[in-house]
Amino acid sequence: MAFDLLYLLCFIVLALLPCSTMAQTSKNISLGSSLTAQNNDNSSWSSPTGEFAFGFRQIEKDGFLLAIWFDKIPQKTIVWSANRDSLVPQGSKVELTSGGQFVLNDAEGIQIWDADSFSTEVSHAAMLDTGNFVLANRNSTYLWESFDHPTDTMLPTQILQQNFILRACYTMTNYSTGRFLFSLQPDGNLVLYTTNFPQDSPNFAYWSTNTINTEIGFQVIFNQSGLIYLTSDNGTILNTVSGKPIATQDFYQRATLDYDGVLRHYVYPKSSGSSEERWSTSSFIPPNICRSITAEVGGGACGFNSLCRLTDPGQPTCQCPNGYSPIDPNDVLKGCKQDFVPQSCSARDAPSPEDDFDFQEMLNTNMPGDDYEHFKVVSEDWCRQNCLEDCFCDVAIFNTAGDCFKKGLPFSNGMIDPTLSGTKALVKIRKDNSTLKDGGANSKKKDDLTLIIIGSVLLSSSGILNFILPLITYVVVSRMYSRKAVPVPPNYQGMNLKYFTYEELKEATNEFKEELGRGASATVFKGVLACDKGKCVAVKILDAKVRENDLEFNAEVRAIGRTNHRNLVQLLGFCNEGQHRVLVYEFMSNGTLASFLFGETRPNWYQRRQIALGTARGLLYLHDECSCQIVHCDIKPQNILLDDSFTARISDFGLAKLLRLDQTLTITGIRGTKGYVAPEWFKNLPITAKVDVYSFGILLLEIICCRKKFDEEAEDGDQIILADWAYDCYKQKKLHLLLEKNDEAIEDIKMMEKYVMIAMWCIQEDPSLRPTMKKTIHMLEGTVEVSKPPDPSSYISSIL
After folding, report:
1. Burial track 440-458 (b if 16+ CB lie within 10 A, e otherwise)
2. Which residues of 292-302 are buried (b: 16+ CB within 10 A; e: fewer)?
3. In the predicted model, is pLDDT for residue 20 greater than 50?
């Protein structure tokens, strides 16, 4: 008891030591000084004791970071960098100009970074022994310091104010911005977040101090004694992040948000000069990263289709189930991909799934969230058989309580943990995965080579025919290499799609010269297929840095690979080669509906009606008429393209959800675009095809009015939200206000009123009140009477 009191007393004394007591000795760096990046020469400015250095560190063959690092240890551990997302080449220079600017320019003289502190008062710079690099005036007052602009690391004596952010690195060897952040929020809560990578915005909070609004004026302090804690403005300690005092004179210290999302407090003995010595972990948060990250949206701690297991305390290891392999072996957090041909949903293709599939049983394993079906009080044998017979079931989770959870791909939040005793994952795998060994392509090459050898031997044995040997050999070799260089992967066989190599598409687009459009995770280029009589195509390249794009790519290929309808954009082929995910579509000469509706020239009323009807027919096909029901999940003007005759073509199936023919609803995370997303997404209700009906209703209003769903620049505040304004105009019998300078539509005001009423029915908050797309088409065509709609605005106003 006495020892505990003594420890507590020491803790309080050490914690409240002011961080400014350390002498800030420095070697001044004068105006006009500079450093140049040179291969194999980490030019730098060192701190007085040489413990830290500031300068260039070579990260790649011709890529340099402007950084701060521990300079007395063999690893030269980096603690801060200026250009983490934009390495600079050899010959780049950082300079403290005579005018007081501190800038980084590349070898061509283009500015890459500056300290954002230009002041004529700057008289010198200094690398301090604390690891803080500063710009100061003649009175040694700091005008800028690296401690105020952290990257992924905190150091002793560093204080972080509200709204600071530490951002993890992308991987252990890639210093660019990664998938996790650590932030002291304005409300006083200290939080670890996953991010909407690579957009770098908070997504899911997986650890926090829960100190919301308890005090005013927060700081995170890393004091000289190695304590990291959260304080109020009066110095009260609200939470201790790392509470183990360490002898500063004996150890180097740092707290780093690592690439795997764990914030670790590291120590390194100063007395060690051994190259074998490594940083050891003093403490870390959260205690179990595998179980902490269970967001409804996202892949969990290790990415989609993967499993997280703690090996050492706080150290996660990511692994793939049998039959799966890493999407990128160099980036374990990208998750895993299925390596075998998935179960077919066609009875003709898979008459007896028991013959082709079995389960890998994984004990103490769970994948919380994103179940599409849940059965209670069933046996394990029943759960296995039910998943086996369901072509959409890729994993079943079964526990001793008799719960059976069915999951499709991609599964998320995978974890293996001893505390999950009684819960097991049944991962469906193909019994015979020989189709994955690339035997088809290799055997064909062997057959061709064998044919060449046999032919050569036979022809060589006849002196009369020897003169035609070169000709025969040439023909056979030409035939061999005229075949596709890359075979169609087994996951996509059976679709009437062409498999392109990346080089073919690079040539078709003239090295991706003409850009047609750009989204958050993909860019579309115009191309010309020399192999298809100069046919124009749209080549959609998914961003390799976005981990969800492998899933988006698979969804898009599988969703529309077998569809064929005049109101859908036809997918012609694809490329899945290394890190390249590319989709090749037929080219739509008139661009997107968004540019058509919201451009300078307003399309005529007849065209708009035909576009609305064509879009509705495309959705009806997806919902009711193709081989498996498809819910598009992202209907908006940007995803409706127009062909030569301005026929509407639905595109972009990256967020699509596939349902079995006997399945009418599913549970999934929020998909779609703000303003077009149906209310049930936000209420965790089952998702049906009615979510597309809602999006179509918003789209129909935009088609009617040639106006965006949300217009902040509207002169009248009542007109900002189109759906609310349209209903008000309908209710007050002032529909003409929606059609300013649109005489053609005003002359057809009765038809226009009917279209507004149809839109109001489509955007009802209750999905059961919305019509099906079949009934919507009948109303648009005039074969079904349109009744007076209720007010739908209560929900719309609340989300915009």
Report:
1. eeeeeeeebeebeeeeeee
2. bbbbebbbbbb
3. no
Of residues 634, 652, 692, 724, which has the active-site annotation? 634
The closest alpha carbon to 436, from 578, 325, 554, 340, belongs to 340
- Reply yes or no: is the peptide bond before residue 321 cis, omega within 30 of 0: no
Task: Write the DSSP assignment of 474-489 as a string of letters.
Answer: HHHHHHHHHS-SSPPP
Architecture of the domain whose range is 150-286:
Orthogonal Prism (2.90)
- Name the token pair of 230: 């959260």
Per-residue confidence at 473, pLDDT binned at 50, 70, 90?
A: very low
How many whole angstroms separate alpha carbon 569 and alpha carbon 323? Answer: 33
The domains of the chain are located at 29-148, 150-286, 307-435, 439-471, 490-586, 593-799
Nearest to 395 by CA among 317, 320, 480: 320
How far is it, in rounded angstroms, from Cα 746 to Cα 553?
43
CATH superfamily of 307-435: Hepatocyte Growth Factor (3.50.4.10)
Task: Classify residue 544 by its DSSP letter.
Answer: T
Q: Identify whether the C-beta of residue 489 lies closer than 8 Å to the C-beta of residue 576.
A: yes
61 is in an annotated binding site: no
* Residue 528 in tokens: 């010309």
CATH no., domain 490-586: 3.30.200.20
| CA-based torsion, 522, 526, 531, 535: positive or negative | positive
**CATH class of the domain defined by 29-148:** mainly beta
Band (212; pLDDT cuts 50, 70, 90): confident
The CATH architecture that domain 593-799 belongs to is Orthogonal Bundle (1.10)
Beta-carbon contacts of 510 under 8 Å, excluding residues fewer than 6 positions away, are: 527
**29-148 and 150-286 have identical folds:** yes
Pairing of strands 571-577, 580-586: antiparallel
Could you read off the pLDDT of 575-589 as tens digits, one per residue? 888 778 888 988 998
Crossing angle of helices 469-482 and 439-460, rounded to 10°: 170
Contact of 172 with 178, CB cutoff 8 Å: no
For residue 623, name the pLDDT band (cuts at 50, 70, 90).
confident
Q: What residues pair up with 582 in beta bridges, in sequence order?
A: 541, 575
Told to judge if 634 belongs to the known catalytic residues of this protein, a careful annotator would answer yes
What percentage of the chain carries pLDDT values higher than 70? 78
**Phi then psi dihedrals of residue 660, to 5 deg:** -65, 160
Distance CA 532, CA 508 (A): 11
